[in-house]
Amino acid sequence: MNILRRLREEAKKFDCSVCGTNHTRSDIRVLGKLDSAWIVRVTCSTCSTAFKLLVVVEEQQAQTSPVREERPRASRRPPVTADDVLDAHEALREFQGDLNALFKRPVAAATAARGTRRA
Fold first, then answer.
1. Which residues neighbour 50 within 8 Å (Cβ) at sequence distance 6 or greater?
2. How far is CA 29 from the centre of its chain?
3. Local structure of 38: helix, strand or coil
4. What residues does each domain of the chain span?
């Protein structure tokens, strides 16, 4: 039995630590091999949480030990809207200063400045 087939069989015994989904349908990829050990990445089919395992095979039995579990990705920010682009354009058009000063500008002041221009 090859290592990937064996890993898929073993995955059926485990559930995702984040969402609880069984790892039967999770994506399992062999990242590399070191002597009698394989480095494997498992990605949950439901929540996409990924973790790496160091799988050591001795006497035809696989023992797994976690290497490092990646934290779930934070939800992405909402997409940039046309209004966001126009706001940035207006702010840059009216800005007086250099690039460093632009990024040191407090967010509250930028928001207040936008509000007064539109009123």
1. 41, 42, 43, 44, 70
2. 17
3. strand
4. 3-69, 82-118
Angle between helical axes of 82-94 and 107-118 (0-180°, round to 10):
100
Cα separation, 32 vs 103, in Å, equals 43
**Cα–Cα distance between 46 and 37 in angstroms, integer?**
27
pLDDT, tens digit, 9 for 90 and up, residues 30-82 = 898 887 788 899 999 999 999 998 888 765 454 444 555 556 566 677 888 89
From CA 65, how far away is CA 63, in angstroms rounded? 7
**Helix or strand run (H / E) with residue 54:** strand 50-58
d(CA 10, CA 55): 11
Residue-level pLDDT at 75: 62
φ, ψ for residue 32, nearest 5 deg: 180, 175
> What tokens does 27 get?
């994506």
Taking 3-state DSSP, the helix, strand and coil percentages for the chain, each rounded to the nearest 5, stand at 35, 30, 35
Contact 40, 55 (CB under 8 A): yes
